[in-house]
Design goal:
- A 5-stranded mixed beta sheet has the order 1-2-3-4-5, with helices on both faces.
- α7 crosses α8, α8 crosses α11 and α9 packs antiparallel against α10.
- Helices cover 60% and strands 10% of the residues.
- α4 links the parallel β4 and β5.
- The chain is an alpha/beta fold and 301 residues long.
- The model has no long low-confidence stretch (mean pLDDT 84).
C-alpha cells in the first residue's frame, strides 16, 4: 500500500488517479514529463480543467504553507501564461481552459482564496486564446473528491490517521469521570490478574486502547464513512460470534483463547474488505475492540 504523502511524485500520481476517476478516462488527458517536460501542468480534462499537483513540505505553520502555495501558483501560472504558451496551444487544440486547479494536501486560509481570485482576473485580462472568459484559479484537496478518495484508499493508497495516542494521565482522567461505565470491566479484571497493582496497570492499559480505538473510529466516521461502515460491520459480526460462542458453550471454552481467535478473524475480515490499513492502525482497532468488549459486554468472562 502506498502513502500518497511520501513524496511529491507519489502525491502527483495519487491526485491524477483521483482526477481520472472523477472525470472518467475518456475525458482525461495525462501530460507525462519524461520527454520535453509537462509544460507546467500534470493533466487536464476535455471539459477545460487543468490540474497542477503540489505537496507542501509542511502544513502546520499556516503562514508558511500559504506562502509556499502562493509561490507555487505564481511560478506555474507564469508557465501557463508566458513560458509555455506556444506548447500549450498545440496541447489544448480547440479546448478552452476555464479552471486551473492547484491539487494540494491542505487549504487552510482565506488569504489564499483572495490571492487566487485576484490572480484569476490578471490571467483573464491577458487575452490568451485558450483561456476562458470565466477562467478561475482554484485550490482543491482530497475533501473535494470524497467518493474517489474513498475508493482509492480502500484499494491502493494507505489510510493515514493523525491523532495523538492516549497518555496514561489522559486515561486516568477519563477513568475518574466514567467509573460507572467501567463497572463491567472492574468485574472481569480480577479474573485476569489477582494482584491489585497489576489490575490497576491493566485497567489503565485497556482504557488507553479503548480511547485510541474510539478516536480512530471517530476519524473514520467523519472522513471515510463508507470505510467506517465496512469496519463497523466486521466488528459487529465478530462480536455476535463471540457472544454466541459464550452462550452456547460457556463451560468448555477459555475466554482468552476465544478472544484471540475472534481477533485473528477480525484482522482477516477487515483486510479482505479494506486493504489499505497500516498494521499499527489495525492493531489499534483489534486492541480497541477487545477493550470495548471487556467494558461493555455483560457476559461474565
Amino acid at each position: 500500500m502506498l502513502n500518497p504523502q511520501n513524496s511529491p511524485k507519489d502525491w502527483e500520481n495519487y491526485f491524477k488517479n483521483i482526477v481520472r476517476l472523477h472525470y472518467l478516462p475518456a475525458n482525461y488527458r495525462d501530460v507525462p514529463d519524461k520527454h520535453v517536460g509537462d509544460f507546467g501542468i500534470e493533466c487536464y480534462t476535455l471539459s477545460g480543467h487543468v490540474f497542477q499537483c503540489y505537496l507542501p513540505e509542511q502544513v502546520s505553520d499556516v503562514k508558511k504553507l500559504v506562502d509556499s502555495q502562493r509561490n507555487k501558483i505564481n511560478k506555474d501560472i507564469k508557465k501557463f501564461t508566458e513560458t509555455n504558451v506556444l506548447e500549450l496551444r498545440k496541447l489544448f487544440g480547440e479546448i478552452i481552459i476555464s479552471r486551473w486547479i492547484l491539487a494540494t494536501s491542505a487549504n487552510d486560509s482565506a488569504a489564499l482564496a483572495q490571492f487566487c481570485a485576484q490572480k484569476s482576473i490578471e490571467v483573464r485580462e491577458l487575452g490568451i486564446s485558450y483561456v476562458s472568459h470565466d477562467f478561475e484559479i482554484l485550490v482543491h484537496t482530497e475533501s473535494e473528491y470524497q467518493k474517489e478518495v474513498g475508493f482509492l484508499r480502500k484499494e491502493t493508497y494507505q489510510l493515514n490517521f493523525n491523532f495523538n495516542s492516549t497518555t496514561t494521565e489522559g486515561a486516568g482522567c477519563w477513568i475518574d469521570e466514567n467509573t460507572e461505565f467501567l463497572s463491567k470491566l472492574d468485574m472481569k479484571l480480577p479474573k485476569i490478574k489477582h494482584e491489585s497493582d497489576r489490575i490497576l496497570e491493566i485497567r489503565t492499559f485497556i482504557i488507553q486502547k479503548y480511547l485510541d480505538y474510539q478516536n480512530l473510529m471517530d476519524l473514520l466516521r467523519l472522513e471515510w464513512s463508507d470505510i467506517y461502515s465496512t469496519v463497523f460491520n466486521c466488528i459487529q459480526h465478530r462480536e455476535n460470534s463471540l457472544i454466541g460462542r459464550f452462550i452456547l458453550d460457556s463451560d468448555n471454552i477459555l475466554p482468552g483463547d476465544v478472544i484471540k481467535e475472534e481477533m485473528l478473524k477480525l484482522h482477516d475480515n477487515i483486510l479482505e474488505e479494506v486493504k489499505s490499513f497500516k498494521g499499527t492502525d489495525l492493531e489499534k482497532i483489534k486492541w480497541g475492540v477487545i477493550a470495548d468488549w471487556l467494558i461493555r459486554c455483560p457476559l461474565d468472562f
